[in-house]
């Protein structure tokens, strides 16, 4: 190739392919000139300066073309080499990718030709849920052949993996998980090759014991002989795949926005399944104790636990609130129904963002007639333990609690009973200060942090009793022996703190009216409540247990936001 001359002007030159590189169209860099035209040429360079020439500098010297320095040329040659290599690599990669794509398209085109047909000569399948092991429905052979019943199952793809020619799918249906194996043609269909997590499937096949040493849910696996992904059952893939929307690294707020998807995860679903069992266990335990269930209104015109946390709403031409507690209504049922309970929503306009406060929570409340304070405490302890017993009788629930809270043990009985005044002494002895940073004193409302520290250190359920009148609700009965305090109880659990609040109720009319006056509450709208003291009063008491807090303790969840379906709290009312 004949030697040419190329010009490089570091100021006004341009590194673009359409330039010739002669004096009228110089390049900007030597590297570009060498890269595009090779090194065996003459290169003339200059640093012309447009605009203002700095004072003292010789403008004309900058306009003179000078042969490129040797070192600069060497650098430019190396640069050109590196650039060429880079370009070659990129080309190679592109070719590889194109081949992969072409191969994949070919495989998928072939796969599209495969259609599965159910073999009607096989035994008719039995429809089962994924956890069903009922011997009548499902048999797993005689141990020798290790084969079993032909079944039909429905579920969603929880996980999938390919191993050589086979596909292993973990199917999920809310009752359990099942390992499914697709072999031969079944693993080669278009549906199998493009299978995404959460896709719904109908699968037919034979249940077999897993080979020795292998593990699968319930020790079995489904050898599919036919499956179908019905129209619309495929789950989104690519960027929209569920694994790209929720993962363990996703921020908590995003997880809450996507709660409908988070619910499909193992932790959330286990917590909610335990919740179902616990709620059912409350019904069982109450029925055993002959409590009757009632359903008080959610729309009310009276408060129970102080005006600060009332949600108000327009109610036709009047004002109404969302109920804070069904207690007062439960009390009105005692004369005709005996002991009563309810499991209803309570609402609190809490402006705090703690891990144990919700704006809407499930409140398990009960009221007991003709009892004394000790009866109330005994009942509460029996009830809580019986609920745990009933819930954990179900082996699935027991397993889920074990998975979520491996250290869980049935609470030691009797529960520790501690008076408020003893707790104050305990806090002082342990140098746990009040919210003003001072040692606790009688009359202080023990704050959440202090209460939890005390409970965590004692590390067992505590019935904290006899709170001062001033820091408790208007309806609480004063202790006859010490009128400074009430016959009240909070049940505290390690890790969470207060999960139950209860008390004996004022049963004398005058005393109740005096309490309304003391608290500055107009008793007029409470006529239906105060009338109870006019028409055959009785010593009675009751309590409210926060279901989400009970579950946070049982399932060892950091926050009550994770123990309800769609949490509502300060700043969140969706989805
Ligand atoms: O102590 P509290 O406010 O008591 C009452 O409402 C009584 N009237 C109940 C009764 O005697 N029938 O609430 C009782 C329990 C608390 O111990 C706590 O577990 C739960 O209800 N709770 C909350 N749970 C979640 N979020 C909130 N904002 C809660 N407020 C109370």
UniProtKB/TrEMBL annotation:
Residues 70-99 form a coiled coil. This is asparagine--tRNA ligase. CDD domains: AsnRS_cyto_like_N (cd04323), AsxRS_core (cd00776). It is found in: Cytoplasm. Residues 1-24 are annotated as: Disordered. Its EC number is 6.1.1.22. It is an enzyme of class 6 (ligase). It holds the Pfam family tRNA_anti-codon. GO terms for molecular function: asparagine-tRNA ligase activity; ATP binding; nucleic acid binding. Residues 286-567 form the Aminoacyl-transfer RNA synthetases class-II family profile domain.
């Amino acid at each position: 190739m004949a030697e040419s001359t190329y010009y490089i002007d570091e100021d006004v030159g341009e590194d673009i392919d359409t330039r010739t590189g002669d004096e009228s169209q110089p390049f900007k860099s030597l590297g570009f000139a060498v890269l595009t035209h090779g090194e065996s040429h003459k290169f003339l360079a200059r640093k012309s300066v447009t605009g203002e020439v700095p004072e003292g500098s010789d403008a004309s010297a900058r306009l003179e073309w000078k042969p490129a320095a040797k070192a600069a040329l060497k650098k430019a040659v190396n640069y050109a080499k590196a650039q060429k290599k880079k370009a070659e690599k990129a080309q190679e990669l592109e070719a590889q990718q194109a081949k992969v794509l072409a191969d994949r398209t070919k495989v998928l085109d072939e796969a599209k030709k495969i259609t599965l047909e159910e073999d009607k000569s096989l035994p008719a399948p039995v429809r089962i849920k994924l956890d069903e092991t009922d011997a009548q429905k499902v048999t797993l052979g005689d141990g020798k052949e290790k084969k079993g019943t032909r079944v039909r199952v429905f579920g969603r793809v929880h996980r999938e993996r390919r191993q050589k020619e086979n596909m292993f799918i973990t199917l999920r249906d809310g009752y359990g998980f099942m390992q499914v194996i697709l072999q031969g043609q079944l693993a080669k269909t278009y549906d199998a090759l493009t299978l995404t997590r959460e896709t719904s499937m109908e699968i037919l096949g034979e249940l077999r014991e897993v080979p020795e040493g292998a593990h699968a849910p319930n020790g079995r696996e489904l050898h599919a002989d036919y499956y179908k992904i019905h129209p619309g059952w495929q789950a989104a893939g690519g960027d929209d795949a569920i694994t790209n929307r929720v993962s363990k690294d996703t921020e908590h707020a995003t997880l809450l926005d996507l709660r409908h998807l988070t619910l499909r995860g193992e932790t959330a679903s286990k917590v909610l399944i335990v919740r179902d069992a616990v709620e059912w266990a409350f019904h069982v335990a109450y029925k055993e104790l002959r409590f009757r269930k009632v359903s008080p209104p959610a729309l009310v015109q009276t408060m129970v636990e102080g005006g600060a946390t009332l949600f108000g709403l327009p109610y036709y031409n009047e004002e109404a609130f969302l109920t804070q507690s069904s207690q007062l209504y439960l009390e009105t049922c005692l004369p005709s129904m005996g002991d009563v309970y309810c499991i209803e929503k309570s609402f609190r306009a809490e402006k705090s963002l703690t891990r144990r406060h919700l704006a809407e929570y499930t409140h398990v409340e009960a009221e007991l007639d003709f009892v004394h304070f000790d009866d109330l405490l005994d009942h509460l302890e029996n009830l809580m333990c019986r609920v745990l017993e009933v819930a954990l009788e179900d082996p699935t629930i027991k397993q889920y609690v074990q998975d979520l809270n491996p250290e869980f043990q049935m609470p030691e009985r009797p529960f520790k009973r501690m008076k408020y005044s003893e707790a104050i002494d305990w806090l002082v002895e342990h140098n746990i200060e009040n919210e003003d940073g001072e040692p606790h004193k009688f009359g202080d409302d023990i704050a959440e942090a202090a209460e939890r520290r005390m409970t965590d250190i004692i590390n067992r359920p505590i019935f904290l009793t006899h709170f001062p009148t001033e820091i408790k609700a208007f309806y609480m009965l004063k202790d006859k022996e010490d009128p400074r305090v009430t016959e009240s109880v909070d049940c505290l659990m390690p890790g969470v703190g207060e999960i139950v609040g209860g008390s004996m109720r004022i049963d004398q009319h005058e005393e109740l009216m005096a309490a309304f006056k003391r608290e500055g509450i107009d008793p007029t709208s409470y006529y239906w409540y105060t009338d109870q003291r006019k028409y055959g009063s009785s010593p009675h008491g009751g309590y409210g247990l926060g279901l989400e807090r009970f579950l946070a303790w049982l399932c060892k969840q950091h926050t009550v936001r994770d123990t309800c379906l769609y949490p509502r709290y300060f700043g969140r009312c969706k989805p």
